[in-house]
Amino acid sequence: MRSTYDCDVLVIGGGIVGLSTAYAITRAAPGTRVTVLEKERGPARHQTGRNSGVIHSGVYYRPGSLKAQYATRGATEMVKFCAEYGIAHAVTGKLIVATAKPELPRLHALVQRGRENGIPVRELGPTQIAEYEPEVRGLAAIHVGTTGICDFVAVARQLAEASGAEIRYGAEVVRIDRRPALGAAVRTADGTIVRARVLVNCAGLHCDEIARLTGDDPGMRIVPFRGEYYTLARPDLVRGLVYPVPDPAFPFLGVHLTRGIDGGVHVGPNAVPALAREGYDWSVVRPRELGSTLSWPGSWRIARRHWRYGAGELRRSLSTAAFTTAVRRLLPAVAPEDLVPAAAGVRAQAVLRDGTLVDDFLIKEGPRTVHVLNAPSPAATASLPIGREVARRALAALAGT
Asked: Considering the entire predicted model, what is its pTM?
């Protein structure tokens, strides 16, 4: 029977989570035949390769949540993985800075949350902020020493190579025939059919669509949010990583300053609705995908609940002057001409029917299938433990066949 299948486990999606899953499967069960289908011509072309490259500490996330567990564990493992394979990285630490009095209670709450998650944090006053970042201004801050930076695209490439899996690029999935008694047969756009005993869905921006192709109801919809970045023309203004105090009502961390592994400083992102799942600027509109977003009841409930927040983000998207004003809260010396547009990213945010933004990682199972349905930031940081958990479920399904 083994010969009638092209592979034991078929992973859809060649981002860092999909490749980490393939890596974890072959490590846990040597000899398991794993194939990865990726519609792009190379790995990590979307969320993995379009972020600020930060190895998150886990300080933000609710104690006991998957994000808290996997980010804290994943940060340590990611640094070790990068060191083992010679991938550019650095443990830089970061500042989270309160610039207004209403933010102070939220900053103190982060101190407590960090301690509950086992993360050492140091509280700073204005003078101490200047010792770390001379150009940054704030009323108070915390320093999180375990935050770092790395090249996540290089990590994804290494995972692909080290996994021993068959990686097929340019393989867009268009149809899935999943049969609980047999497995799954997947057809790609060029007509190729791949048969597997177990299917793993790590399709990121398209994960809900892939879930529906298998016949499973994901119970959520991906609503894409574009994050727009700038590069700082005067990188000497920032030494490391500087973040605002996040609003706990939203899953976004706010506009921050990140000195990357290449020495450049990224500024951003904001968060505006994208008009396509891969809508990296306002000119990219895909009516079918936009219609999918607009037809989902949760999208309208988000809009009604958070329209003021959204209006501010939209204004900063359309106006460099407004974006500069937001940055000046942290970095008063910045001027509009210091901000050079850079590549944007799109966050694959899962939204429930009632308008709830799914706050934690979300992994569901169907017959012979594992779906990763919400894995935005800090999924790159947490990719190694996420991959092991998805691999555990996939291998359990494989054992039951």
From this structure: 0.96
